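Encode chain A's predicted structure.
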Amino acid sequence: MTGVSLRSLLFAALALVAATLFVIDYSQPRQRILPVSVGLAVTAVGTTFLLLRSWNMRIARLRRLAESLPGGALRDRPAGEKTLDLLERSLAGVAIEVHKLLDQMNFESARRDAILSGMTEGVLAVDHELRVTFCNPAFLKAIGFRGTKFEGLSLLELARDPELLDLLREVLSAGEPRQLHFKLLAANARTFDVHATPLATASGPGAIAILHDTTDLERLEQIRKDFVANVSHELRTPLAGIIGYADTLLDGALGDAENNLKFIEVIRTNAMRLASLASDLLVLSELESGADGEQELISIPEVVDAVFATVESEARLREVCLIRDEIDSVYVRGSRLRLEQALLNVVANAVKFNRPGGEVRVSAGQNQDQQVVIAVADTGVGIASQDLARIFERFYRVDKARSRQVGGTGLGLSIVKHVMERMHGAVNVESQLGKGSTFALLLPGAPAPDGNLTS
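Encoded structure for chain A:
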């Protein structure tokens, strides 16, 4: 029995004694006072007994209740141990078990939050009134939510998308899983595959939806389709020329001394175009697969000399002047073959898309950030501002007619971009339509053979 109960009984006994002393008529003989005192004493004892019995019954019920709870069952009960002590032991066991359960719940909650926070898929849970009960950071990021509190908001307040709302409403009404492929308007029109299922909650039925972002997969699929279409188109033109002129020769033009060499030259030109396309596709495939080639210390002046030696004959034919501006003795580390391919593509484009009497200037040096900068400036046709963002795409041509006239596969600048990325560099371009373009290849500088960074 607790101290409060003992004090209550003590106060009750004192009250009875005080009442006894108060009601006794001391003027009466002692024989009459004695029965009254005994009666009051018996009443006090009876009342105390009833109170004690009531308390003991309540304590017994509490003990049985405590023993029915996790951790409250007692394995050993020493003889003579009081009910109140048994209750105390049971409650102590319950308290220990409750602490364990709370620790486990906190651990599970933290683990759930960590898992949901680390998921790339968006997770959304709503109740039967379509009010948000939970959503993870991926979902909030997908809808562009910038607030701090989302629990209790209606779904329309959080994500104003009718398709998602209708999907969850249908799941709640039918009680069956549903799937949907749709564009979430609040996420810059990104596409999602949504799987929604019923969810039982303490407040009643609800629903949970998992959103998987398929935007990048669909973009890659579209790139693959475009790539196949572009390759098919690029192959069709030279193959048509080869087949057409070969059939002409077989049909009797082989004996035409005036034209047979011309036809054979056309076949050879188209075959070389196919070989160039296959070569560029192979290079691009190797770069995209992560093949870096042999890593070595590369002298930029030597690379520029090699590129000039390759394109000078074509520049002479097109009456374009190659100018070797100041080329500092700077070095980078990577694949020399890939770097020469990248610079050759840029310089060759500058020559092809130039005008008779035009110039192509190449310079190289090191900037303040210890980056090697190779600049290729031309006085050619230039590039319109709306095309600058797309010139590094595979098969993209600013002027398709002129591109086919001067040759090329449409993969050159895409190769340049990939080479720069593989060598931890970048490529920038500035252009003005009708006045020319300047391409800058930026690469991390490397120490010269003597161990010092050149400048």
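The two ends are 91 Å apart (CA to CA).
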